[in-house]
Amino acid sequence: MFHLILKRLLWMIPTLFAISFISFALIQLPPGDYLTSYVTALAETGEPVAEEQVEALRRRYDLDRPFMIQYLKWLNNLLPFGFERQDTGSYWRTDAGDFNWPSFKWPDLGMSFEWNRQVTELIGERLLLTMLISVVTLLFTWALAIPVGIYSAVRQYSWGDYTFSVLGFIGLAIPNFLLALVFMYLGYSFFGISAGGLFSPEYQDAPWSVARFTDLLAHLWIPVIVIGTAGTAGLIRVMRGNLLDELPKQYVMTARAKGLAPWKLLIKYPVRVALNPLISTIGWVLPGIVSGSVITAVVLGLPTTGPLLLRALQNQDMYLAGSMVMILSFLTVIGTLLSDILLLWLDPRIRYEGRDNA
Amino acid sequence: MSGILQEEEPSEHIYTASQWQLVERKFRKHRLAVWSGMIVLTLYLGALFCEFLSPYGLDDQHLEYIYAPPQRLHLIGPDGLHLRPFVYGLKGIRHPQTLRKVYVEDKSKIYPMQFFASGPSYHFWGLIETDIHLLGVEEGGTLFLLGTDSLGRDLLSRIFYGSRISLTIGLIGVTLSFIFGLSIGAISGYYGGWIDNVIQRLIEILRSFPSIPLWMALSASLPATWTPLQIYFGITVVLSFLGWTGLARVVRGKILALREEDYATAAVLVGASKSRIMTRHLLPGFTSHIVVSLTLALPSMILGETSLSFLGLGLRAPITSWGVLLQEAQNVQAVAMQPWLLTPAIFVVVAVLAFNFVGDGLRDAADPYGR
């Protein structure tokens, strides 16, 4: 088991490097850079743009350098171990002129052109809220999908099963943003409130406190339901299918014949077996939730990473966009790893297979 | 030996159903899937004949009827029962308090519905010029069954035209994923070794990207100077960028398993070439799986296109897809004032549901061990 986890951890390193390269290349793909779109935007408002000034800015942000150099610089800044940028702007020479040895440092995600602030500063709280929403959504999905899945399997072809199946399929087919719009419409037309955002206006910029947290919880349920619906629907199908495969097996009948109470039996054996494939799906549930939350956040106006990413992509704010795609992918990789470890811990069969292979 | 064979051959008259016949028979039993299949067919037929089906052209503006609500069809008028459904004339007046334009039915004017009515002229499939539309009303009347948008364009007609883009973008995307997935998966599974290792790692990396941010980044990178057609193909490439990975995995797994089967070994022993073993012996073993994964990949592509276009990163006007139509319903105010702008979403949901059910039915039908 230890070997397998170590192997997975080692695999993460090349994976993350590849992800960083793809993210950066993607962001750099559009022709032009932030300054060209900035200049066009300025020109549209009729303001004159000094050519030399733009060139100076371009040099300052290395936008005139080749792609690989830009990438390596960004990567170096991103890593917790690397060449620290000196006050003179050089990476190789210390201020005293000696060779600058790589060392441990704080990861630097770069600057956002548009906001003229550090990326870390910009996305700090947004990232936390994104993670909070993702985790709560995951819990909500599970808390709903597992009991409903068990019910649907045990009472197969009952009215409840049909109702849940139909609801589940509809949940899968409704795009996230549509559900968000419908919720907002209902809130607007029936209660006259705006369902958007995560905080009431008075807590928008307030420092963290118990009151702000309760306010957050009061707003959290709408995005959680909106983002979680598709995942819940999918998980109900998986849970129901798995349990239906287990229920007719002989060990279930044996336990029944020996007089084990139906509920006790159900929870102790078949449900446990049926849960395994469910856990292995965290790997794809999590990217799904992160993806879903991006669009939902744009519609609902949540202060998470989604709207910021959309804006950054549209404005070619490359360090902001690149770092955000990178962080979201990083979280997904970690999530997949966690689900693998959880599965290893729960399912002895995989543990033994792993030992053979290692 | 050959004599015995020749004698036996004519006497054997056992009926054998091919794999596909068996699949078809099983599929027919799956009611929901069959009905969904019909819905899918209807949608595609609608897309094929959209010029004829829609009462108005794609960009016909009616500036005196901006944001007109859906017109209702009536059977009973002030003068009693009518044989043909009819609509009343539409009259725009200013709301006395809000000063917004609101529309009321002008009960003095009755326009019966006409089949094969003449309306705005169009080039059917770009070839034949005609002005026959399935539904229409007399000159002077209007037929906005789903209302109009901010430029007074008939929403129903735009949905019909939009289905052309929305439904084909998935098809082309799936075809692209199919080509990539099949060839890359086959290479990975058949050659094994380091090639397999590299390809599998690449797939793992691509799959660890959250799809929407990746799609967003890719579509944002399409140059704004591209023509609508180029954007259309660009978006399909974007959508299939992740789609092929799933298929490649299925194909690889199947080839790895089937390669070890006795009949594959037998084919190697009698000296069949690699490509022959691949296409003649291994491929038929997993075609049904491919068909199923393709059907199930379609709805996610339709949803992907709709979401991207809705955010303004996908297709842009003048191309009209369901997602582009939904852009008008982007904020609560618009939805609260003009709820009919959400109707394209109903078509999205119906199409996605239908595809899902067909895929489910196919999966059950293609499984030779299923009950």
Keywords:
heterodimer, A: 358 residues, MetI-like fold, two-stranded antiparallel ribbon, disordered C terminus, B: 371 residues, alpha+beta, 2 domains, three-stranded antiparallel beta sheet, 13 helices, 5 strands
What layout of secondary structure does this protein have?
The complex is a heterodimer of chains A (358) and B (371).
Chain A: H1 2-28, H2 34-44, H3 51-60, H4 67-78, E1 81-82, E2 103-104, E3 111-112, E4 117-118, H5 119-154, H6 159-173, H7 176-191, H8 210-246, H9 250-257, H10 262-268, H11 270-280, H12 282-300, H13 305-315, H14 318-346, H15 348-357
Antiparallel strand pairs in A: 1-2, 3-4
Helix pairs in contact in A: 1-14, 5-6, 5-8, 5-12, 6-8, 7-8, 7-12, 8-11, 8-12, 12-13, 12-14, 13-14, 14-15
Chain B: H1 2-11, H2 19-29, H3 31-48, H4 50-53, E1 74-77, E2 80-94, E3 101-112, E4 114-124, E5 128-136, H5 155-191, H6 193-207, H7 211-220, H8 228-259, H9 262-269, H10 274-311, H11 322-326, H12 332-337, H13 343-366
**Helical element count of chain A?**
15
Q: Give the C-alpha Rg of chain B.
A: 27 Å
End-to-end CA span of chain B: 41 Å
Measured by DSSP, the beta-strand proportion of chain A falls in under 5%
Q: Which residues of chain B form runs of ≥5 with pLDDT under 50? A: none
Helicity of chain B, as a percent range: 55-70%
Shape call of chain A? globular
Topology of chain B as a string of helices (H) and strands (E): HHHHEEEEEHHHHHHHHH
Describe the protein.
The complex is a heterodimer of chains A (358) and B (371). Chain A is 72% helix and 2% strand. Chain A folds into two domains: 15-83, no CATH class; 123-352, MetI-like fold (Orthogonal Bundle). Chain A has 358 residues and is mainly alpha-helical. In chain A, the strands form two sheets. A two-stranded antiparallel sheet of chain A has the order 1-2. A two-stranded antiparallel ribbon of chain A has the order 3-4. In chain A, helix 5 runs antiparallel to helix 6 (159-173), helix 7 (176-191) packs across helix 8 (210-246) and helix 12 packs across helix 13 (305-315). Chain A contains 15 helices and four strands. Chain A has helices spanning 2-28, 34-44, 51-60, 67-78, 119-154, 159-173, 176-191, 210-246, 250-257, 262-268, 270-280, 282-300, 305-315, 318-346, 348-357, and strands at residues 81-82, 103-104, 111-112, 117-118. Chain B has 371 residues and is α+β, with helices and mostly antiparallel strands. Chain B has two domains: 65-152, no CATH class; 158-365, MetI-like fold (Orthogonal Bundle), CATH 1.10.3720.10. Helix content of chain B is 59%, strand content 14%. Chain B has 13 helices and five strands. Chain B has a three-stranded antiparallel sheet with strand order 1-2-3, with no helix packed on it. Chain B has a two-stranded antiparallel sheet with strand order 4-5. In chain B, helix 9 (262-269) crosses helix 10 (274-311). The longest helix of chain B has 38 residues, at 274-311. Chain B is elongated. Chain B starts with a helix and ends in a 5-residue tail after the last helix. The mean pLDDT of chain B is 80. At the A-B interface, helix 1, helix 6, helix 7, helix 12 and helix 13 of A face helix 6, helix 7, helix 10, helix 12 and helix 13 of B.
